[in-house]
């Protein structure tokens, strides 16, 4: 007997985040810089996307605008169905707290707090209690079960970044933005952190967008989008580090001849 399924609702197909014609300029007059030039991109739910491009191509600006950390000049940035430019500062702070997880290159942990207290801090700030079962799942996913009472100085760089990843995941955000999360790590710790980010997508259904310079890091993603001069110029699905490197070299060669 054939079974019929309801067609997916708009909520199900809505990307976790979307930019449409997103333009961002800094400065005025002669010092004006167009950091993003009408970028349109969607980040699908439950996928791991890497954002790559040469230095100054707009990667961090795209992340900051899409995470509501920096206002757009024109065009649209949405998280879920929410248009960020419709929100005032208080609403933006709340949206970031409730719907966005961040992982930065410098870990950004509070030194006086234990690993567990760092992980649960965003929830506490939002006046929420951690769901114990989910907290256990997140802690197990990033392999921190034996380290929860340690303070950041008692942890290696890789372990500190795992705390930061757990902190980003524990509120089940709509999307996690990671800016060069392996930039301060040796290659082994970096590979572990990338593995945990990928597990958070494959096993926990998280959506992750990661800015990186590193083709090996980008190869952990499901998809790589490439920026050059503030424009989205290419993308790769199921990338290998070799294919990512080839594209990067091609952009750089094109940049030198244009
Ligand atoms: N606050 C700012 N004021 C003025 N110009 C800025 C500002 N932030 C970024 N820019 C400019 O916008 C452009 C894009 O910068 P952005 O930091 O997004 O690039 P990126 O790809 O992340 O670079 P990198 O890989 O070096 O971190 C650059 O030309 C940069 O100089």
Characterization of this structure:
The chain contains nine helices and ten strands. By secondary structure, it is of the alpha/beta class. Helix 6 (157-169) runs parallel beside helix 7. The longest helix is centred in the last third of the chain and has 17 residues, at 241-257. 39% of the residues are buried. The model is unreliable at 1-8 (pLDDT under 50). Bound molecules: adenosine-5'-triphosphate. Residues 26-27, 33, 35, 53, 55-61 line the site of adenosine-5'-triphosphate.
Looking at this protein, list some descriptive labels.
258 residues, alpha/beta, Rossmann fold, six-stranded mixed sheet, four-stranded antiparallel sheet, 36% helix, globular, disordered N terminus, binds adenosine-5'-triphosphate
Strand content: 15-25%
Mean pLDDT: 90
> What integer value in Å does the Rg equal?
19 Å
Shape: globular
Tell me the span between the first and last alpha carbons.
61 Å
Helicity level, as a percent range?
A: 25-40%
Number of domains: 1
Low-confidence stretches: 1-8
């Amino acid at each position: 007997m054939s079974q019929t399924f309801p067609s997916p609702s708009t909520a199900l197909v809505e990307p976790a985040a979307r930019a449409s014609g997103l333009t961002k300029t800094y400065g005025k007059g002669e010092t004006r810089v167009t950091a993003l030039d009408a970028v349109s991109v969607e980040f699908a739910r439950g996928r791991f996307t890497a954002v790559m491009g040469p230095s100054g191509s707009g990667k961090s600006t795209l992340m900051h605008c899409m995470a509501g950390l920096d206002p757009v000049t024109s065009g649209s940035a949405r998280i879920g169905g929410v248009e960020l430019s419709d929100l005032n500062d208080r609403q933006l702070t709340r949206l970031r707290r409730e719907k966005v997880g961040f992982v930065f290159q410098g870990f950004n942990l509070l030194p006086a707090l234990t690993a567990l207290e760092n992980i649960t801090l965003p929830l506490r700030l939002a006046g929420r209690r951690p769901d114990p079962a989910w907290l256990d799942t997140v802690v197990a996913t990033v392999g921190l079960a034996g380290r929860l009472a340690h303070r950041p100085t008692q942890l290696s760089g890789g372990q500190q970044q795992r705390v930061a990843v757990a902190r980003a995941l524990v509120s089940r955000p709509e999307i996690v933005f990671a800016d060069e999360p392996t930039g301060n790590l040796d290659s082994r710790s970096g590979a572990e952190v990338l593995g945990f980010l990928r597990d958070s997508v494959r096993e926990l259904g998280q959506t992750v967008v990661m800015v990186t310079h590193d083709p090996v890091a980008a190869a952990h993603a499901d998809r790589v989008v490439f920026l050059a001069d503030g424009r989205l110029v290419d993308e790769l699905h199921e990338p290998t580090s070799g294919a990512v490197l080839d594209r990067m070299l091609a952009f750089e060669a094109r940049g030198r001849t244009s």
